[in-house]
Records
---
Amino acid sequence: MSFLHRQEKVINMASPTDIRKGRVIVYQGAPHLVLEMLHRTQGRQAGFVQTTMRNLQSGSTTTTKFRSTDTIDFLHTTTQKLEFSYKDSDGYHFMDLETYEDSVLTSEMIGEEDCFLVEGNSYDILLVEGEPVRLQLPASVEAKVIEAPEALRGDTAGNVLKPVTISTGITVQVPLFIKKGDVVKISTSDRSYLGRIQ
């Protein structure tokens, strides 16, 4: 039985003040990943913690307030580095290079971050109760340019950029000297060009 359908395996009951970004809690019967959190106080009233969380079952995001008197159930989480192998109808396959065990993340778990998945690259995968639930993107990824227009003469003034397509399928803006076959480093936060690898 999946951890997503059982609630008794919580590691502890704790106060909302223990909520941290990246931790997983049980909220309304489902595991939620904390994306953002902020402690707030209201004059003489008891403070509260405002959180933005992602439901690891449905992929939906919600903003919730927890009062200081609430109790929180934390689930046990670990992070494992796995290599992205391929995508098929089951989902996105990641392999443990030591055990060759295959872990599958669904499209809901990956979301729009699939545009940064490069076959053969390793990624941190968040595990809850030993089961993979979320891709944790690095700050940047390296991918090969598969389509690049030729630079036009006269385009050399200033920081002129051109659109190229990388192996993950997205289009990014790069300097004019980048050509098809180059490997470039791309920021995962805003898809900006960070440099040429070779």
Note: Residues 1-10 have pLDDT under 50 and may be disordered.
---
Amino acid sequence: MSDSIFKVIFLVGFVVGFIIRGVFVFWIQFNRRSKQNIIIVDRKTGLDKLLLFYSSMGFIVIPLFYLLSPRLDFADYHLPTWAGWAAGLVGTAVFAMALLLLWRSHADLGRNWLPTLQIREEQSLVTKGVFHYIRHPMYTAHLLWGIAQALLLQNWIAGFAMLVTILPLYLVRIPREEKMMLEHFGEEYRLYMNRTGRVIPLLWR
């Protein structure tokens, strides 16, 4: 019973997450002036595209395939009732935090957000809102999403698919993104790095 409830909760959160991304993508494209669309730094590569495709398998294709088809049921595991409810409730809370952080990250970035390793003309360094504490809150949001997926879907493949597929992307992309930002914003970004966490807030500073 709890399995079915938390599958529904995951599916609802999944849809909400894509609505958040879709709304901001539409808003940014609608409001962006032509001058702001001029790309002055472009570091995206074939590897980036490959890793993005690989990660999309883990947080889009595999969980949806699991929810809409019985083909992956062989990898289900069943926790004791109390443990299943505990994992599901924690997963629900983590998913809510992930969606809130995803929304707040988009809102704070505004027109500065780009889905790839690029910098536009007149792009500014955002250090307000959640970026005051974390340099990559969207990545943090997706890591929380992956943890929630593992807690809500009691399946060895679908549950852990996002964490398995998204970590390689982050291990490759975050250092390259920070190098690009250092080269473009210089000392301003270096100072920003010194007072913030990469994906976990430096609350003691």
Note: The domain at 2-195 is CATH 1.20.120.1630 (Four Helix Bundle (Hemerythrin (Met), subunit A)).
